[in-house]
Write a structure and sequence with these properties.
The protein is an all-beta fold. The chain contains no helices and eleven strands. The protein is globular and about 40 Å long.
Length: 117
C-alpha cells in the first residue's frame, strides 16, 4: 500500500521557519515526482512547490527564494523547508505523488502551518 505520511508544521511567527516532511512507504520516492499543495480557509488549493524524480525543483512565484525542496533517498522522504514565513503562507499543506499522466493519486494527510504576524 502506497502511503505518504507528513510531519512538521505548526505555529510560527512571521519571519520564522518550518520544515515539512513527507515520508513515503510502498514506493521509492526518488522514482517519483512529488508536489506540495496548500489550501487556506476560503481559498482554492494551490500548487506551491515540487521536486521531480530527477531532483529538479519548481516553486510558485510567491515562495521562490523562501521555500526549498529537498529529498533524502535513504529515508525515502521529501522535505519542504519554508523560511521567512509570512501570514499569507498560513494553510494546510499536503504532499502528493504526481502520476505520469499529470494527475495525483496519493496524498499525505496534510499538516497545518500557521504564521502569526
Amino acid at each position: 500500500q502506497v502511503q505518504l505520511v507528513q510531519s512538521g508544521g505548526g505555529l510560527v511567527q512571521a519571519g520564522g521557519s518550518v520544515r515539512l516532511s513527507c515520508a513515503a512507504s510502498g514506493i521509492i520516492i526518488s522514482n517519483e515526482d512529488i508536489d506540495w499543495y496548500r489550501q487556506a480557509p476560503g481559498l482554492q488549493r494551490e500548487l506551491v512547490a515540487g521536486i521531480s524524480s530527477r531532483g529538479n525543483s519548481y516553486y510558485k512565484d510567491s515562495v521562490k527564494g523562501r521555500f526549498t525542496n529537498s529529498r533524502d533517498d535513504a529515508k525515502n522522504t521529501v522535505y519542504l523547508e519554508m523560511n521567512d514565513l509570512k501570514p499569507e503562507d498560513t494553510a494546510v499543506y499536503h504532499c502528493t505523488r504526481k502520476t505520469p499522466w499529470g494527475t495525483y493519486d496519493v496524498w499525505g494527510q496534510g499538516t497545518q502551518v500557521t504564521v502569526s504576524s
